[in-house]
């Protein structure tokens, strides 16, 4: 019993249970960034504001490929403020995407500003790989609680 429990905990920590329940289609020609870009395009998104980073680069590349204009800014809050402005002026959802950790935390003021104005806004934050969460991965923080 104790050995089985220890093995179960070890399998969980190594991400083996996650891999059992979340299958990846190795034959799929598309990656997650392409799926995100297709959904944004289908919802009429014309602009994507960002401060580019490694965690989100597949989304940025795929968005440009489907005709969404990617606008790089110098600060994450600026990306969200710009998405908020597009939302207010166009009546469409404004979209910003930022890298994980500090990229997400830097958006708090602008997100709260959009919330108070009741602007439709989507913020996409990058994240550490699921198997690396809680293990000291680059910029790994609990973003959802924020």
TrEMBL record:
Q: What SUPFAM superfamilies does the entry give?
A: Thiamin diphosphate-binding fold (THDP-binding)
Which keywords label this protein? Answer: Signal
Segment forming the signal sequence: 1-26
Gene Ontology terms describing biological process: isoleucine biosynthetic process; L-valine biosynthetic process
State whether keyword Signal applies.
yes
Name the GO cellular-component terms. acetolactate synthase complex
Question: What Pfam families does its record include?
Answer: TPP_enzyme_N
Q: What CDD domains does the annotation carry?
A: TPP_PYR_POX_like
The cofactors named for this UniProt entry are:
thiamine diphosphate
Could you tell me one molecular function GO term of this UniProt entry?
acetolactate synthase activity
Which parts of the sequence belong to the Thiamine pyrophosphate enzyme N-terminal TPP-binding domain?
31-146
Family of the protein in this entry: Belongs to the TPP enzyme family.
Please state what the protein is called. Acetolactate synthase-like
């Amino acid at each position: 019993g104790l050995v089985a429990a220890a093995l179960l905990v070890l399998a969980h920590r190594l991400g083996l249970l996650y891999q059992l329940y979340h299958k990846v289609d190795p034959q799929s020609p598309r990656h997650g960034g392409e799926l995100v870009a297709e959904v944004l395009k289908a919802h009429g998104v014309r602009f994507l504001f960002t401060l580019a980073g490694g965690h989100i680069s597949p989304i940025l590349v795929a968005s440009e490929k489907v005709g969404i204009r990617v606008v790089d800014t110098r600060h994450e809050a600026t990306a969200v403020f710009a998405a908020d402005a597009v939302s207010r002026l166009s009546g469409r959802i404004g979209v910003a995407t930022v890298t994980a950790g500090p990229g997400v935390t830097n958006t708090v003021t602008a997100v709260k500003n959009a919330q108070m104005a009741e602007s439709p806004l989507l913020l996409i934050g990058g994240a550490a790989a699921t198997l690396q969460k809680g293990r000291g991965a680059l910029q790994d923080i609990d973003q959802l609680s924020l």
